[in-house]
Specification:
By secondary structure, the chain is of the alpha/beta class. It contains twelve helices and 15 strands. It starts with 15 loop residues before the first helix and ends in a 5-residue tail after the last strand. The protein binds zinc ion.
Amino acid sequence: MPRRRLYYLRMPPLTRREFVCAIAATAAFHPIRGVRAGAGEYDLVVKGGRVIDPSLRIDAIRDVAIAGNRIASIATGIAADTAQTIDARGKIVVPGLIDIHSHFGRVSDGPAICLADGATGFIDAGSQGADHIDDVVAVARTAPQTCRVLINIGRAGVLPEGDTMDLGRADVDAARNAIATHRDVIAGVKARLSREVAGDHDAEVLRRAQQVATSFNLPVMIHMGQTISPLPTLLELLKPGDIVTHMFAPPPNGIIDDDGRVLPEVLAARRRGIWFDVGNGRTRHMRWDIVERVMSAGFWPDTFSTDWTPEGRTEQVFDFPNVMSKFLGFGMTLNDVIARATLNPSRVFDFFRDRGTLNVGAPADIAILELRRGSFEFVDNYGNARAGRERLFPAGTILNGRRIQRKIA
Ligand SMILES: [Zn+2]
């Protein structure tokens, strides 16, 4: 699976030539240029927002014009004529957010909830296994935005007693049959490997997940942290394009050693094309002291994700912009943060390839955010609070060129 790395987002800026190559590689879109159209050319114009799009290296006050379901122009002073307009002055206008680890598929209104929060694409990561995959597939099929599902290698899905504590539940044939039935919606395999989920057969569970995934050329996402096996043992079983979620999980078996150094096997895994994802969640996945150490070691996440569940709606997670906000406190710029919720996740799964950008010609998926300054408290999975002076809030969504009316309270 070809995976172009995105180190340039945290490394020195590209040369002009490298940048042009990078953009040319993203998609065959038209070059960005504000083409002044005649009256009635545009259907919707987002006026006067601070447009931040790391794929285009834009961070400036611009109008964004949409024609049909595509981005038609980014420029200053676009004449709206008869087009509908959205006043985005004082707001931030970014490509639609892409959440690659969530559980919005668990509830029928999950897609609408995250859409209102700005997520124009999401992955339900392992809510269900083969036995009940139809439930989550049905939600995915009716979601207004692009939604795919990772099948849990545990055939009964997420279980309080541990998805694959009974190794018999890691059923390769059952998972393969489910994928064959829903090949258009199932986009990978999820393996939850913590001690309380997989007991002492974490490596065997992962091997089986990989057997299933490779037969369909799909990625595996592993849930790391508090495993019985050391992380390097598990990383050895991953292939380029696979994803490690819960990268800030505290020990045992986190990504750093006792001295706060990132394990060499983790660095090697990233070099060979394995993605490292946040997976905020609510229990045992994120602790501020670990985040601090990993971030200060320079090992930044490739992607942010919520690991949202209905319970997360009212604590810790809340919404994707809130999860993004937490990293403004760890040395990331707003651009760095936006990249990890737009451009970078668009590279992880092929069907998001033309998303995560406001380039002219791209699908008109846009999140409008509000950056509020004040005193905010961010709580990790262990009840530790961390103060922040900025927080992003959802302020509007455009999907396929259509403004989403916020119905969620
Ligand atoms: Zn999860």
